[in-house]
Amino acid sequence: MDAPLDPAPTPIAPSLLQRTTLVRETARACGLPIVAITSAEPFRHLAPFLQEHVAAGRVEGLPWFTVQRAMESLDPATIHPGPRSIVSVGLPYHVPDPGMPEDGVPRGRIARYARGDDYHRVLRQRMDHFVEILSERLGQEIVSRRVTDTARMVDRAVAARAGLGWYGKNACVIVPGHSSWVVLGEIVLDLELAHDLPLAMDCGRCTICIDRCPTGAITAPYTIDSRRCLSFHTIEQRGAIPREIRPLLGDWVFGCDICQDTCPWSGAAREAADPVFTPRSVANAYPDLGWLVRMSEEEFREAYRGTPVIRAKRRGLARNAAVALGNTQHDQAEASLLHALAHHDEPLVRLHAAWALSRHPGRSASAALERARTTDPEPDVRDEAAWALETR
Ligand code: B12
Ligand code: SF4
Ligand code: SF4
């Protein structure tokens, strides 16, 4: 007997396709150039991975990252009363790099995503505008929720399922033509739309990002241990950076791009044309480290207002700069550190300046550390100075 015929696939109503095309066109017209669509089904299969991730302590230091929040972030119904589709959007930010100036000044490095306007604000504004225009074009009210980089939605999982990109072993979503230089957002809608398929791509046998990560933070493919990641330590970490991490920080003062810079896909990434990501000045890409450890609150706000760097706060950025000054043998570094140890108003910065001076062999450093050991008003700074003197 002949095998029964497969039932004919359900035809997609033209109105569904037309609506989906309209969604894509509207997104592009609203400054969201990369768009893909997926269903609003929960991402339940990720629950064991996320539970294990939290239980293993890999997100220690991110207090909001609890198992409960992680489980909620797997279900779009947590944030939307009747979700039907998710529009996954990406903003490419790989704008031309001005390059580190060769002006004899010791400089730090800011991660590419943080050099221009804060993408959270840009994405939210564009996603809001998209919903407004889409609603006008469709002639109907749309109930939507728009999120980016929150604990309320697994951004990368949405992008991967929608086929916007695919998971690299560096845990970033790699988007064809842009590598991973794309920030992600989602618009959860009560509209039925035609869904895209995941991309059939993977890293193959490549392990470059894992091998090149300076701290070994990519503990397994697709798995980042925040406790080792420089991005965590330079941005999220509010206290002292662990001593064993400090030498590995190099000249990064906000974020880290090493696992993306070293990815072969990045070599073929198109330059992004979006002016919002262009650094306003050299301080937004390669800041003078001496200036960072001296800057006033006002100068900090003036330079970094409206950019992601503001998140680190002045004391966090100055702390990172002190560490970077300890990691360079530049002849101006010691003078900046001596000044910071003697005069910085933030004990956290003085503490890191003490550590950094342990890596500068001059006699002035010894004298300054001795002074700090005996006279600094903060016990932690005195202890760090004592440690620095012992290890010199
Ligand atoms: C917490 C967080 C961090 C933490 C921890 C990062 C981490 N990977 O866990 C820290 C501070 C270290 C960090 C650093 C960075 N971050 Co961050 N971060 C987040 C945040 C808020 C949550 C990420 C998260 O849930 N992590 C937990 C892990 C378990 O989830 P996941 O990353 O989605 O991992 C998935 C894979 O592991 C996959 N998976 C698991 N097993 C397997 C097995 C196989 C075979 C496969 C294929 C997949 C797979 O499933 C997981 C669940 O989706 C997201 C925004 C968001 N809400 O999603 C931004 C986000 C991930 N960050 C982003 C960026 C840009 C960065 C930095 C590049 C910034 C920088 N230059 O310094 C670095 C990159 C570090 C790195 N290599 O991941 C972007 C990434 C964009 C992209 N194209 O991927 C996001 C999506 C923000 C955004 N909306 O654009 N980040
Ligand atoms: S961001 Fe830097 S420290 Fe973090 S995993 Fe990537 S290379 Fe490692
Ligand atoms: S460096 Fe290699 S392993 Fe890492 S994300 Fe890129 S292709 Fe994948």
Give a quick precis of the structure.
The protein has 392 residues and is α+β, with helices and mostly antiparallel strands. The chain contains 15 helices and ten strands. The protein has helices at residues 14-29, 47-55, 67-72, 119-138, 155-162, 208-212, 230-236, 258-261, 289-294, 297-304, 313-326, 333-343, 347-357, 363-375, 379-391; strands spanning 34-39, 85-92, 109-110, 144-147, 166-167, 173-174, 182-189, 218-220, 223-224, 252-254.
Report on this model:
- This protein has helices at about 15-30, 45-55, 65-70, 120-140, 155-160, 210, 230-235, 260, 290-295, 295-305, 315-325, 335-345, 345-355, 365-375, 380-390; strands at about 35-40, 85-90, 110, 145, 165, 175, 180-190, 220, 225, 250-255.
- The chain is an alpha+beta fold.
- The chain has 2 domains: about 15-95 and about 110-190, no CATH class; about 210-255 and about 290-390, Leucine-rich Repeat Variant, CATH 1.25.10.
- It starts with 13 loop residues before the first helix and ends with a helix.
- One iron/sulfur cluster binds near residues 169, 203, 209 and 262.
- Cobalamin binds near residues 149, 155, 170, 183 and 259.
Quick tags:
392 residues; alpha+beta; Leucine-rich Repeat Variant; 2 domains; 4-stranded antiparallel β-sheet; two-stranded parallel sheet; 15 helices; 10% strand; elongated; binds cobalamin; binds iron/sulfur cluster
Distinct ligands: cobalamin, iron/sulfur cluster
Distance between the termini: 87 Å
- Number of strand elements: 10
CA radius of gyration is 24 Å
Major sheet, described briefly?
Answer: 4 strands, antiparallel
Distinct helical segment count:
15
Structural class: alpha+beta
